[in-house]
Amino acid sequence: MAAAEPEALRADIRGGRLRGDALASLLESLPASERDAWVERLLGITAAPDTEHTGHGELIGHHASGVGALLQLIRDVPIRASDVFVDLGSGLGKATMLVHLLTGAKAIGLELDSALLDAARQRARDFGLGDVAYVQGDAREAVPEGTVYYLYLPFTGAALDAAMARLEAATRGRTVVVCTLGLDLSRWPWLRGRESSDFWTGIYDRVS
């Protein structure tokens, strides 16, 4: 199966055969340097469409999450079928769809840009992923309810401060985990970072 063209395996996703351990084993069998392109072909994710908010000041343009980092976060959090995975700045839906397919967790993508949102929704519909949903919105104003939150450097500066304030208010009194790629959240006292040997990924537990 590892040598199969990814497009040929889409029917197995629709039919529920290429999920969980079967998909994880397939991904682990691929050379790390080939995984991202392979997964994007599998999910039908092509070049990002023209967007309304690409690289505008503190709002970072679309960048697809790396498969290796997602596999590590799934394992280390760990993310389970009982979780609700929320991607703040979900782009074309690579992280949300892949986490759902690998774990069975419900997944929600919050995305400001309508072009990215429409493309992600179409791919999820094409695969019949009823437990993957996309919401148009701004994390500075509202965030969906979840148990595991994911941020791949979607914003910086004052935009990040505002989004983190909103996330703190939305998760107050609940047990949640916040995962990041390329983003240090250690200055927020309501989060406690876990020790990690990987400088690129971060896992934080809500403590207050």
UniProtKB/TrEMBL annotation:
Recorded superkingdom: Bacteria
A Gene Ontology molecular function term of the record: methyltransferase activity
Protein name, entry field: Class I SAM-dependent methyltransferase
Pfam families: Methyltransf_25 (PF13649)
UniProt key word Transferase: yes
GO BP term, example: methylation
UniProt keywords, alphabetically: Methyltransferase, Transferase
Annotated source species: Pyxidicoccus parkwayensis
Domain spans labelled Methyltransferase: 86-144
